[in-house]
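Thread title: Can someone regenerate the structure for this chain?

I was given the following input by a collaborator and told the matching structure tokens would be attached. They weren't. Posting the sequence so someone can regenerate them.
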Amino acid sequence: MEDLSLSTERLLAHLFEPQEDKERLSVTDRETVALYETLYTQWMENVHLTDAEMVAFAMKEFNCSRRTAYRYIANTKIALSTVRAAGRNWYRHTVVQMLLKAYAMALEERNIRAMIAAAEGIGKYTNLDKPDVEAIEWEKLSPQTFEPTADTALLGITEAEQSNFDLLRQQLERKYKLPASHPAGIVLEVESEEAP
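Best answer:
Regenerated them for you:
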């Protein structure tokens, strides 16, 4: 994981492992893993919480300084990013969770309009209001085949034009052909212009 110390990355690899698998960790490491599991779970269950609210939660829950809490939250966000790999999908999930809560509240209050609005929002953010896109069957697609050819007629070049190209090629060869005794192998012809 990016931006993590090796020790923190090693600890986060043990998140939510069975307790017997954590026995090989030191007591301090087990406590740190439990701390990250608590923060991870809190944020997954309450997706609407801001960083500041999570810092306050960490300070209260673990009796730590603000600086330490920010470090815990930053590491938790990196761990969550593996779950939230595509940011857009994470925000879609967040919106759907909030809309489900709004729907539940509207249902409790028997507010039909709010229920419909929440249901429409869920449909919009999950793309249920759009037709399903059929999957492309990549196996059935084959790349276009090309055959190499020297036939210039395929480009629309006539025989007469072809002979003009041959003549031009010969002229350029004579103009830029190197004498056998030339050491550099490159001849540059520069026309000199007199300054006014």
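The mean pLDDT is 77.
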